[in-house]
Amino acid sequence: METHTGTPMKKSVEHGQVLDGSDIMELVENEEVFSNFVDHKFQELDRDRDGKLSVKELQPAVADIGAALGLPAQGSSPDSDHIYSEFLNEFTHGKQETVNKTEFKEVLSDILIGMAAGLKRDPVVILRIDGEDLLEFINGPSFESEMVSTFSLIESPDVSLRDHIIKAFEKLSVDQGMPPASDSWVLDNIVEPALQACAGNDWHKPVSQEAFLLEFKKVAELVAQHLKEQPVIVAHSENTFDGSGVKRLLSNKFELDKTLNAALENVPRDRNGKISKDYLRLVLDVVAPAAGLPPIGAVDQMDKVVGEVFKMLSVDEGKLVKEDEFKKILAEILGSIMLQLEGNSISVSTNSVVHEPLASSSSLLQPSSQ
User: Fold this and answer.
1) How many CB atoms lie within 10 A of CB 360?
2) With contact defined as beta carbons under 8 Å apart, do 235 and 126 qualify?
3) How far, in Å, CA of 320 to CA of 211, rounded?
4) Pairing of strands 98-99, 124-129
5) How far apart are CA 290 and CA 246, in angstroms?
6) What pairs with residue 18 in β-bridges?
7) Coil/strand/helix, residue 73
8) Residue 8 CA, distance from chain mean position
9) Among the four residues 5, 180, 220, 247, which has the most C-beta atoms within 10 Å?
10) CB 237 within 8 Å of CB 334
11) What is the Cα Rg of the chain in Å?
């Protein structure tokens, strides 16, 4: 089996559970089941039992939607915070103080359908990392050459052998059977116990390549054993942004106009109906899913491309323009992004450890047990 980028999948990836949006669509398209789902969630959120959801009561729903989309927590990034604001505006239409159940159902349906479309385009694979692939890598023919290459990247005379080994684990991925070592739970419960068991008196001396290879293999074997005893669940996704989604949107005038009109619906205007160019990034972010682009702040390389395009087109100043001119500028931005990506596509592999507390705390998008 291969990924959509053409690289062979490891066994753990091949046998993983694929989240492709089909379960979400099944929920939304079954009117009776979805109505029960909405009733349960609305009741959960309606703390004062007045039959309406206030902005405050909607906040947990907005937070859960953001978490389900992989956004950082509210308050941690200005780039993602405005996306949370957009979700809230979707429910309140930018001006309502409360939302009734019918409105809540309509907006939640639209958001879930959008999420399903995103998962269909870029599925997430749920992996169970149990040490089998890591042992295969350690005992395989490519181990020494790959680790020599890794050592050359991380080698430093001021860094201990212990720190070299930790940095090396951070360079491994699910392709080698290793969950993200940057995750604090993985570091504390999988890597650290192995390090402590193998630590020698000479680990603080200058590090040679031979000593690194020998000691890393010992630690990696213990890490594989710990993973066998405590398998780690990882959400794995691979995305390639090559401009094809932008091209499809720009080539379909009806779909482009419909998308831009929907994105501009709640954007403030002055008394003459003009829109500030300050809102271009905000609207681009709303249009992004339809253009096959990630949210602003989600992929560093994409943020650089967007920044370069805005600079090249000199559209960052807050000048007021008519709606048609605003749409024209946005189409130019999308066209420039498409050309940049066609010339240099961006491939991103994401691996996130799935923790039970996190899964249970995000209840909005979990089916009701009723």
Assistant:
1) 9
2) yes
3) 64
4) unpaired
5) 8
6) 125
7) coil
8) 22
9) 220
10) no
11) 24
